[in-house]
Amino acid sequence: MSKISDEYLKIMKDIETHISNEEEKDYIKKKIAELSSLYLELIDRVTDISEKRIDDLEEEQDELNKKISKMSETLNLIKKDIYEDEDYDFEIVCPYCNHEFVASVEDELKEEIECPECHNIIELDWDDDEEDDCCSGHCHSCGSHCHGEMDEEEILDDEDVEDENNAESQDNSDNEDDM
What we know:
Radius of gyration: 48 Å
Helix content: 55-70%
Mean pLDDT: 77
């Protein structure tokens, strides 16, 4: 700013030395002062407008930062819920002693677990194949026509179903003969 002041003073001295008429000199000095004042007012207005825009931008930036912060917190919670909670609790029934217990399994890579009651090792099957859900023989109860050996209970259940079907068949044929 001192350079501008120095230049202004230099111009004013130059006017003083080159204009001899005092009335003209005062008039020119007055007009230069008015012109300078207009420029300074213009600079002040531009500065005020710029400062207001900067303040508005800072307020908007603060609001955006708050929103981003909230979104980041929410995203971190979602991430924690989805990715960081690797412990799963499973209810397991031991096939050896029928003890029911809850086990925390970190991941599906674990293939076996020890029963806390009988201490036998239980194999964990993560595949969940349909064949495993099926009974072990050809029967009417599951409808999947799986093959294998049936245990005593399945044989009895299967025989009961066959007896019921035969009885219904007999009733239907008796009804047809009566017609």
